[in-house]
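Per your request, structure below.
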């Protein structure tokens, strides 16, 4: 039997040139024509290439009938005879020749296809169509069913091709829009680069202008210094000329007087008295006048700048008041200096780093001196005795201005005596303890915690905080009451600081809650005492009030509170005093307690 002929190579074309307004493409016309030809050729191939009557067989079903064993008893003779005959039959079963020719034809047709073109997938279906046509023509009984199946698939393929053709203009439009967007993006980037370049140039010009202005300022300062020096020299020169002029006038007067004496001596009797006597008297008078003039000049030269005693006493009192303001008790020790100091002009970050280094050094050594004295000694060790005072004034001016920065504001309060350094130290210890507790909960050491774990750590670390305060801290982390408590977050980020030393909202909220809790504690103490701020209170009454509002206070902590309020050493606090023996203004006591680290030690007994 002859093998199937290869299909025409004209199936590889994919051109889609439209023919007029009919909407039919060359591909469609070509494929339709080709299919009509192939339908005729299929019938020819079927008649010439395949002999269905000779090669159609029920494989593999024809072999199954030969292997069916009838029901026989295993022990009978007939069973052994049939089993022996079956063992003598060959086991190999061959395919029908018609199936083999169809498979060979399909394989050859697929090898002849050009799969490198766009229509390769469409052309790949053609051999399968032909094989299916063979089955439809040869199996007459199933022809209607197989034809309907084929038509359904062909209609679906045609529908899909129409959808693809309809989407192709949209694809071209998307490509065009993509190119336009890319061009706009490139244009915007070029414009941004140009703008950045212009801004950099403007920045450089401004920096040059600033340098030029600084140079002009330095030049003007040097010019002013030079002019002041010249003015002092001119002033001294004019003083010398004034003194020389006075001496010259005195000499001229002396010469004139001598000439008058000579003229009087040449005309005797003009005065009616003895000329010699008058000449002698005139000479003595002139000598007295000269001596008096010299004394007057001496007095003016020596005491010309002397002020009256009353003015001197007023100026002396003013000077004393000013000295009390450079050296008074209200001035911190590290700022007690008379003279001018240089402004070092550090950046905000430099000041924050200096303060952090000072606190680290303070915590590392034994606290034998007050923090202001330690701070000035720290500056002397860091910058030397000559520049320590300049740096002290420079840092003080910075921390006085930037109250929003946590490190600066707390350092300012401690240096000015408005807050005890134990408050700052206790706050840092609390933060370190909280971080340690979170690390202990992080058993996997991944740096992550859930919101429920955070709640547990906060409640264990701050057992006396109310539930709304715990919620405030969790919200500062990013907790949403409507979300799940299984959300993970990086707990180490809660304790980080920005480039200017500013804490994150979680630490800021913790510090604000501490201040609010301290104010509430002191307000509760005031309410327990039942006094006004201008009233006086005794030591036993404050001790009793503290024990009532905070029964968990131990003796050591209670004595430290009383020592802070009455400014007495703990060792000098009496164990039992009568009412009114040691009294103090309530406002003063509360202010002193506000400065210290005051916090609740346990729940209040409500029973």
């Amino acid at each position: 039997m002859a093998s199937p002929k290869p299909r025409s190579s004209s199936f590889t074309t994919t051109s889609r040139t439209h023919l007029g307004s009919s909407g039919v493409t060359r591909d469609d016309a070509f494929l339709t024509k080709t299919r009509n030809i192939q339908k005729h050729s299929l019938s020819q191939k079927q008649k010439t290439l395949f002999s269905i009557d000779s090669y159609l067989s029920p494989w593999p079903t024809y072999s199954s009938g030969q292997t069916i064993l009838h029901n026989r008893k295993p022990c009978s003779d007939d069973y052994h005879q049939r089993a022996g005959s079956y063992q003598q039959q060959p086991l190999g079963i061959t395919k029908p020749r018609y199936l083999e020719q169809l498979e060979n034809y399909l394989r050859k047709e697929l090898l002849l296809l050009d799969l490198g073109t766009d229509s390769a997938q469409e052309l790949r279906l053609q051999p399968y169509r032909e094989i299916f046509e063979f089955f439809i023509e040869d199996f007459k009984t199933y022809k209607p069913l197989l034809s309907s199946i084929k038509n359904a698939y062909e209609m679906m393929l045609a529908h899909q091709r129409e959808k693809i053709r309809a989407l192709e203009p949209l694809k071209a439009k998307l490509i065009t829009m993509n190119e336009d967007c890319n061009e706009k993006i490139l244009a915007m980037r070029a414009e941004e680069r140009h703008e950045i370049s212009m801004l950099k140039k403007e920045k450089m010009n401004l920096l040059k202008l600033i340098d030029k202005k600084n140079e002009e300022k330095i030049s003007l300062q040097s010019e002013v210094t030079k002019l002041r020096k010249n003015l002092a020299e001119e002033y001294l020169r004019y003083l010398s000329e004034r003194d020389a002029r006075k001496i010259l006038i005195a000499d001229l007067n002396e010469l004139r007087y001598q000439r008058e004496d000579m003229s009087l001596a040449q005309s005797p009797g003009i005065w009616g008295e003895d000329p010699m006597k008058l000449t002698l008297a005139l000479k003595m008078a002139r000598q007295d006048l000269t001596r008096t003039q010299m004394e007057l000049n001496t007095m003016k030269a020596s005491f010309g700048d002397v002020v009256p005693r009353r003015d001197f006493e007023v100026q002396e009192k003013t000077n004393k008041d000013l000295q009390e303001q450079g050296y008074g008790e209200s001035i911190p020790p590290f700022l007690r200096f008379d003279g001018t100091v240089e402004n070092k002009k550090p950046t905000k970050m430099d000041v924050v780093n200096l303060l952090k280094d000072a606190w680290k050094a303070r915590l590392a050594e034994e606290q034998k001196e007050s923090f202001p004295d330690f701070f000035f000694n720290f500056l002397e060790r860091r910058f030397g005795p000559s520049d320590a005072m300049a740096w002290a004034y420079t840092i003080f001016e910075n921390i006085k201005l930037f109250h929003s920065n946590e490190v600066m504001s707390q350092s300012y309060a401690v240096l000015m005596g408005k807050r005890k350094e134990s408050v700052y130290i206790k706050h840092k210890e609390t933060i370190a303890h909280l971080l340690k507790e979170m690390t202990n909960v992080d058993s996997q050491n991944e740096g992550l915690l859930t919101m429920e774990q955070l709640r547990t750590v906060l409640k264990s670390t701050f057992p006396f905080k109310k539930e709304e305060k715990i919620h405030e801290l969790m919200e500062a982390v990013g907790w949403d009451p409507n979300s799940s408590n299984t959300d993970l977050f990086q707990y180490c980020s809660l304790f980080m600081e920005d480039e200017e030393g500013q804490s994150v909202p979680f630490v800021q909220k913790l510090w604000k809650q501490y201040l609010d809790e301290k104010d509430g504690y002191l307000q509760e103490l005031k309410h327990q005492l039942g006094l006004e701020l201008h009233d006086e209170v005794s030591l036993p009454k404050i001790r009793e009030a503290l024990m009532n509002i905070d029964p968990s206070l131990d003796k050591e902590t209670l004595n430290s509170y009383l020592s802070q309020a009455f400014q007495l050493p703990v060792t000098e606090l009496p164990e039992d005093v009568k009412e009114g023996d040691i009294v103090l203004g309530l406002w003063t006591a509360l202010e002193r307690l506000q400065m210290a680290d005051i916090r609740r030690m346990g729940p209040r007994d409500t029973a």
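The radius of gyration is 57 Å.

Regards,
D.
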